[in-house]
Design a protein that fits this description.
304 residues, Rossmann fold, two-stranded antiparallel ribbon, 16 helices, 9% strand, binds 3'-phosphate-adenosine-5'-phosphate sulfate
């Protein structure tokens, strides 16, 4: 049963914050760790498209853009189900009463579009064996941190974030779910030299959605009329997606996502970190950043 229907049933959700385990040194929920052998053995198909991101880097936004492209801009078709149902989140195990991401992916007819937050070394090897296309989206570390902090506050199954100061340190140390932001973005950056990966940046999509959506079109070998592209740009902008009940995560039970603490579609901007970082935190972050990003050609914009 789709999640949006489950919500209507008003079940008595036994909601607890996830405990954290590890797979090859990467913090993941205990539920993911318990199912790891199955996740690793997932059988990708050549026409699968994988949308990969570090959590809070613009996954949902990219999912909506891709679905709109695949539906030739048909907004009603895109509203056939929630983001969560349309593009299974392969490693995710939300609740014992619900099908897992793997269950959903396996039940889905091809061509499938799937979501993951896994660092590149943990992506099931069949994706590479089948030469699948992957769209990776990266967001600057500071805004990504702020978004992740608020998500931990509103998502009642994420590990307890602690105070802003505590979460800030955990993020720098890579002690958050899916591990270090640095290793994630750098790992995928390297991998793009080897596999069919389109590497995009949140900041670029924000600044020039037309140009970035055209890159996706090209990557997917699709061609759309200008009017259709205009429509996609319109429907995937933050203000419109925020009010789309099939994309704004209000389809989840509020025992899990409590939008009154902080909405899932929170701000959708570049540079909000300036409203959160103290001067001392910024200095500390910059020093860590310099150390961790030394030797990579990968660069980010922290403001537009
Ligand atoms: S998740 O839970 O990891 O899948 O979250 P994810 O979708 O990656 O990230 C959520 C952040 O993306 C913002 N968002 C958008 N920004 C700009 N435009 C659009 N259309 C859009 N849709 C979602 C969302 O608001 C979260 O960022 P913050 O900074 O918290 O607002």
């Amino acid at each position: 049963m789709p999640l949006e229907k489950m919500k209507e049933l008003k079940l008595d959700w036994d909601v607890k914050r996830f405990e954290v385990g590890e797979v090859r040194g990467i913090p993941l929920t205990k539920e993911i760790c318990d199912k790891w052998h199955k996740i690793w053995a997932f059988q990708a198909k050549p026409d699968d498209l994988l949308i990969a991101t570090y959590a809070k880097a613009g996954t949902t936004w990219t999912q909506e853009i891709v679905d709109m492209i695949q539906c030739d801009g048909d907004i009603e078709k895109c509203k056939r189900a929630s983001t969560y149902e349309r593009q299974p989140f392969i490693e995710w195990v939300l609740h014992k009463t619900l099908p897992t991401g793997l269950d959903k992916a396996e039940a889905m007819p091809s061509p499938r579009t799937l979501k993951t937050h896994l660092p590149v070394q943990l992506v099931p090897p069949s994706f590479w064996e089948q030469n699948c296309k992957v769209i990776y989206v990266a967001r600057n570390a500071k805004d990504n941190l702020v978004s992740y902090y608020h998500f931990h506050r509103m998502n009642q199954v994420m590990p307890e974030p602690g105070t802003w100061e505590e979460f800030f340190q955990k993020y720098i140390d890579g002690k958050v779910l899916w591990g270090s932001w640095y290793d994630h973005v750098k790992g995928w950056w390297e991998a793009k030299n080897k596999y069919r990966i389109l590497y995009l940046f949140y900041e670029d999509i924000k600044e020039n959605p037309r140009c970035e959506i055209q890159k996706i079109l090209h990557f997917l070998e699709k061609d759309l009329e200008k009017e259709v592209l205009d429509k996609i740009i319109h429907y995937t902008q933050f203000e419109v997606m925020k009010d789309n009940p099939m994309a704004n995560y209000t389809f989840m039970p509020q025992e899990i996502l409590n939008h009154s603490i902080s909405p899932f579609m929170r701000k959708g901007t570049v540079g909000d970190w300036k409203n959160h970082f103290t001067v001392a935190q910024n200095e500390k972050f910059d020093a860590e950043y310099k150390k961790n990003m030394a030797g990579t050609s990968l660069t980010f914009r922290m403001e537009l």
